[in-house]
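## tool: complex_structure
## caller: assistant
## args:
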Amino acid sequence: MINIIKVLFKKEVTDASRDKRSVMAGLYYAIGAPIGMCLLMSILLQQLASPDALKIIIENANSAPGLVAHLASSDIKVADDKNDPLLKPITLSISDDYKQNLSEGRPATVTLIADKSDDKLGKHINRVEKAMAVYSSEIASLRLVSRGIDPNLMRALAIEVNDQATPDSKGGMILGLVTFSIILTLFYAAMSLAIDTSAGERERNSLSLLLSHPLSSLHIVLAKVGAITAFSMLGLVIILVVSKVVYPMVAWEQLGFSITITPEFMLFCIAICFPIALMSSSLQVFVSFMAKSFKEAQSYVTMVLFIPMALSMVTTYDIATDVVQWLPIAAQQFALMEFIKGNPIPVPQLLLSTGVTVVLFALFSFLSARMLKSEKVVFGL
Amino acid sequence: MINVSNLSKKIGDVNALNGLSFSAENGKITGLLGPNGAGKTTCLRTVFGLLKADSGFAEIDGIDVAKQPMQAKQNLGLFPDPCGLYERLTPREYISFFAQLSGLSAAQAKEATTQVIDKLSMSDIADRRCQGFSQGQRMKTALAQAVVHNPTNVILDEPTRGLDVMSTRILRELLLLLKAQGHCVLFSSHVMQEVAALCDHVVIMAKGQVIAQGSIEQLCEQAGKDTLEEAFIALIGSDEGIAA
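## result:
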């Protein structure tokens, strides 16, 4: 039996590895996902680190030279030219009695005119409001000092935060996305191959010839699942290696954390992802055989893959309930995130979900083998 | 030896096989002759266990295919229609793969593959991928796959379709050689010349039933005609008359 599976496996791997289009489709994801994410993050971080110079219109600016100078120190300047590309549609209107009110210790009116429903403008409006609030607070403190009052009276609470997070544990959402992209490789790296080796094989009429030989349909299914798993694991190794190379290139320290793909993490990831790869391969073969044609299989597999994606997403965005954390994929991804953070691994959840993953692999393989005994499935009737 | 007894098979609303019975002996070439839609392919698919008969049974060397499929298929070589090639494998890889599935070891399969490639004069295409092969090259590859493990029983579904003159001659010689070696050869065809030139025993079928069977001489005598083609038309025609 082992020998027959070996012969079938070797043929599946040879056949699949020559299907360049399918292999490349999988590898593009494994190589492209971490690189794409790093590029995106780098651009985002650059924007956070050096906010653009902001230009606004200030009406009656001469009445408030102090405020204008304070805004300028925060890189918010008065636009000289109305066609200036940096000019945002934000107007600060200084009231005529501003100077008088300020000198008499009364609130001086400054009107901010802008469209708050404009999403792109939101962050700029916030920036102007924050800068003005700081100015207001500084002037207020000076007024208290000049009247012989300690400005600290205005602070009822002295809030001190003792952050126990390590740089590795702060990643949160970003770590979720990193592990999400890794788990997804197991499903997408070999998707085309899975469809080709099952629905494709039937469409090319070689499946019926295979089944006419003295071997059981379970041998055929196991060899196919094995070959697809091999390609999924290849995708996993590639994404891990690429991640290890490209993630350190992003300046994560600006966000106060770091993402380190260590060799230990890579080994841990390979070990706990292997059962997922088996389950993913058997699921894709099962769904592909259920479809009547290659095209139908493509639609079905894409739809079915939403389930593991959803399980991974709830972990990524930390919206998993206690029950979900025991489910396959969600639990494994959670363990991966905890490993990177250096936290203890949730062993019971990991063991149970791995067990369920292996049972699902066995179930899907058995169901596929049973389907291959049906004339309707073999001839796509 | 292949023995088919009272096979019935309904596909959808059509009675594809309707109490079909015949035998194909060892050391003889048996031809399954019938018009399109007679049930030839359905019959052969039932013999190699891909379709389950509603009633009746098919035996290979006395083993019931439905009850003991693994044992029954052990001594069977198949040439299906369509050929079922793997486009990305070379004929050498393809033939060797099926040889191993039929029970040969890797070394035996390699040896047997080389021999059958020589026998069918296909060395020039043996190491090219099957993608882009002509119909004749495809048929040759499938034929090599069917006989590589030297099975006692060889079943061929429309094997001469698309073959050029030279390839047809090679096929004929191969089938005659298999016969001389004592193999049981069963093939389906609707080409009279092939059947007339090769078969020791002809089974004429239509609408899933055997209309007549025997040697070519016996069939001609039965129909009162001089040639197999005329006898075939007469026999099929009379059947349609009865059925109507």
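## assistant note: The mean pLDDT of chain A is 87. The first helix of chain A runs from residue 2 to 17. Handing back to user.
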